[in-house]
Design a protein that fits this description.
The chain is of the alpha/beta class. It has one domain: Rossmann fold. The chain contains seven helices and five strands, in the order E-H-H-E-H-H-E-H-E-H-E-H. It has a five-stranded parallel beta sheet, sandwiched between helices. Strand 4, helix 6 and strand 5 form a beta-alpha-beta unit. The longest helix is centred in the N-terminal third of the chain and has 14 residues.
Length: 136
């Protein structure tokens, strides 16, 4: 399965123990993680500024993410009514890359579900999906 993770999920995966970290590991082990330059830029900033992750560690994390499938910037943004316009490039990249799921904890993104172009799920909902595929 091809999965696009929002910045908040990636940040949590590397800064806390728990569901997001486990989900990230499961995706790397058994699925295809798709990301975008927009997510990489946001992740780098969030890890450094909000979570105070050391620069060398941030560089390693971004390098790991760059080794996954990287989608190009969307040529057009979808015509979706969304409260936070900063979330539109995330949704557009997920749609444009043809992923099966966009996993996010962002309420504005989650409020878009259901979309016909991509399934949107919380980390808990997506954990339920992968647990049915391969019991964890």
């Amino acid at each position: 399965m091809r999965v696009f993770l929002d910045t908040n999920i990636i940040g949590s995966a590397f800064t806390t123990r728990g569901l997001c970290a486990d989900l990230f590991q499961e995706i790397l082990a058994s699925h295809t993680l798709v990301t975008s330059e927009y997510i990489l830029t946001e992740t780098e900033a969030v890890l450094a500024r909000r979570f105070k992750v050391p620069g060398a560690t941030v560089t390693e994390i971004i390098a790991l993410l760059r080794r996954q499938e990287l989608t190009g910037a969307p040529t057009t943004l979808p015509q979706i009514a969304i409260r936070d316009l900063d979330d539109l490039p995330v949704v557009a990249a997920a749609i444009g890359s043809g992923v099966d799921y966009l996993v996010s904890g962002d309420k504005d993104i989650l409020s878009l579900a259901p979309l016909k172009e991509v399934r949107i799920a919380t980390p808990r909902e997506f954990w339920g999906v992968v647990s049915k595929i391969r019991p964890l």
